Amino acid sequence: MEKRGDILIIEDDRDIVSSMRIILESRQYQVREAYDGKQGYAKIEEKMPDLIILDVMMSTETEGFELAYKLQNTTAYKKIPILMLSSFPKKMVEEGSEKFQHLLGDYWPVADFLEKPVEPEELLSAVENLIAQPKQP
Amino acid sequence: MIRSKEIPPRPVHDRTKGQVFFPIDLMKVFLWLIRLRWMAVAGGLIASWVVYTEDRAFPTLVVQGTLVVISGYNLIFYLLRRRMSAAAPLDERSVILVAHAQTAVDLLALFLLIGFTGGIYSPLLIFVFFPIVLIGIIFSPVGCFIYGTLVVMATGGLILMGEMDILPPPIAMVQNSLFGDRFGLIPYVCFVGAILATGVLVTATASRLRGKGSDLFRISRELDASNTKLAALYEMVKEMGLCSDLQKLMDTATRHATRIMGVKGCAIKLMDEEAKTLRFTSTYGLSQDYLAKGKIDIDKSPINRQIIEGAVCAIGSIDEKDYFQYPEDIRKEGIASMICLPLRVEKKIFGIFCVYSDESYCFGESDTKFFSLMTDLAAIAIENLRSGLLKLWFMMKVSHQLRSPMNAVYTMLKPMSGEYLGPLSVAQKDTLDKCLKRIKNLGELINDLLKLGEKKSEVAAPVWYPVDLVKIMRHMQDFYQTQARQKTIDFRVQIAADLPKVHANEKLIDELFTNLISNAIKYTPANGRVEVSLTRATNDRVCLEVSDTGIGVSEKDLPGLFAEFFRTDNAKAFTEEGTGLGLSIVKEILDRIGGTVHVESTLGQGSRFSCLLPNAPNPQPAPGAPSAG
């Protein structure tokens, strides 16, 4: 069967990763896994994914954002769409902390942002959207 | 305390030196002199006529001619004064010039009259003391001395002219003049002595007054300046209080500080958590080149180390001491003097606040004191916002830890219930869905608890401003319309025209509306109705009404409705959803913005929540005035 797209999940909670894998594989997506930012970056270098699903808080509170900015600043990886997941609503992240305020510039380095827990249908429609429309440069 | 030994005070331009009257006062003296001259002319005309009737030898014509000349120049001075008063501001130099002109012309006229009325034996001689007194008060001691000498010399001249019979003879009515009936050296010496004594006494007294006057002027100017500065400081603190973003707050502080202190630039350097480096977090008026140095290593910078340990650093001249690692950079930036103070709240120092001037010795003792006050206020504002953000950060972390396992369980169960892992029996799916519902509810409970906690503990004290309710309500309408339609509930929103803004903040109003509307929809069965309205209740209150045809609240449950975790029995029976915190959040928000809530409800028929929200105060109330709402 033809695979529909290569998705890299970067998330430190392995249970969540395996559940998302089940949902995504049910729609014929190819799923790769990484459990922190460093590992994730290595996997991207190994092979460019079509989409990255990225958690915010991993080994450090802002690891997800740091990786997203790093990718944004790398010409080769700039165009990979990122779907960000967080236990916090977007608004809370925006206003919440000096750490985020320092980090977040004028723009969010991600294409979409979903609050956990994510409904399977919600996840699938977000993924479909992002893979279908190539990210604007 | 590091302090360059002598910081000369900033030069004060003292306009009042050697002068007791300000131009405006001199103008009043002029008016008084002009009136006095009219009286003198009138008196002189009458007196000369009386004398003439007694003594036909009296040169009335010449005397009266002189008096006419006096009234002539008096008229000129009168007109001149009027013109000068009309021109604001007064030109100080021309006022002084006119004062000298009047004095000189008056003295000349007086001596002419004395000459015509018997010279040294003239009864008018006694009047020469008055100009001396006036001169002593108005002009400097030197001026008084010069005029005094002229008077003494003119009197001497009169004596000589009398001896040489140039002057008309003394009038017959005068038996004894000031000098008796014969000229002598001793009377003249006495006259000179009297003039001298008058001059000295008057100038000495005037000098003391003069000193007091200029003191008063200086004090009033200082008071005025410090008043202006304090008002500016108040503006600065007010604006900082409105910032919810740390960077904006610090930028506000540096911008205002530069303006208030009237200097080249200003900077805030914050210390990192390990107290090892300082980072320029906000600057104003400094070049990018100067900031390019980046972080400052505290261990390598003794001056910064001392400030971080609490020292006040006021440096009059960059060249004076080898305080700096790189004085070249500072000189290149055009900085000549500076004050740097620790940003401190209680005993905790977390950064440095600096002002930079391009003049050497720009800052005096009072500038340092004032800047110290400014620094303390800025420190409190920064620390307040930072600690609020830190508390919020802590809560975010707690919430993250609590929600992570719950999210994982939900995410794992969801594919199972969605039959991604294979088909389920009806009973299995039903049980799984119940589990999912409970977990979701737990998530909401954690959210609500955190929100309530945030409000109770006043984390990140909210900023109040006029809030446009219409915008938020339209947003709510869009959002809840879908939900209502799914439940076949008739959801209507009515908003009065010209609704005033409310004194609150958007986040709280958003939460208030969300809680009331979602509650109404949640507890209204299918085919019911939910109505929301916003109206102007009174002149200073807006009324928000949310009514539903839902399950209602029994009379016995009404008093406890706003208590935390309270859920009525009929609510529990109606739905598993609900944390019992929604209405406590509503109450908490209304308490904070100064609003009220009133509930009417009939069990089984529906409820009506009426909230009164305070209007935003009228724009631009006077500082310190009580707000209208």
Topology:
The complex is a heterodimer of chains A (137) and B (629).
Chain A lengths: L5 E5 L3 H12 L4 E5 L2 H10 L4 E5 L7 H10 L9 E5 L3 H7 L1 H6 L8 E4 L4 H13 L5
Chain B lengths: L1 E2 L19 H32 L5 H27 L5 H25 L12 H10 L2 H23 L21 H57 L4 H16 L3 E7 L5 E8 L3 H4 L4 E2 L4 H7 L4 E3 L11 H7 L3 E9 L2 E10 L7 H53 L8 H31 L8 E3 L1 H18 L3 E6 L6 E3 L1 H17 L6 E10 L2 E8 L20 H6 L7 H12 L2 E7 L3 E9 L15
Parallel strand pairs in B: 1-5, 9-11
Antiparallel strand pairs in B: 2-3, 2-7, 3-4, 5-6, 6-7, 8-10, 11-12, 12-14, 13-14
Helix pairs in contact in B: 1-2, 1-3, 2-3, 3-5, 4-6, 5-6, 6-7, 6-11, 7-11, 11-12, 12-16, 13-14, 14-16
Description:
The complex is a heterodimer of chains A (about 140) and B (about 625). Chain A is about 40% helix and about 20% strand. In chain A, strands 2-1-3-4-5 form a five-stranded parallel sheet, with helices on both faces. In chain A, about 40% of the residues are buried. Chain A contains six helices and five strands, in the order E-H-E-H-E-H-E-H-H-E-H. With about 140 residues, chain A is α/β, with parallel strands linked by helices. Chain B has about 625 residues and is α+β, with helices and mostly antiparallel strands. Chain B has 16 helices and 14 strands. In chain B, a hairpin with a 2-residue loop joins strand 6 (about 335-345) and strand 7. In chain B, helix 11 (about 365-415) runs antiparallel to helix 12, helix 12 (about 425-455) packs parallel to helix 16 (about 580-595) and helix 14 (about 505-520) packs antiparallel against helix 16. Classes of the chains: A alpha/beta (about 140), B alpha+beta (about 625). At the A-B interface, helix 1, helix 4 and helix 5 of A face helix 11 of B.
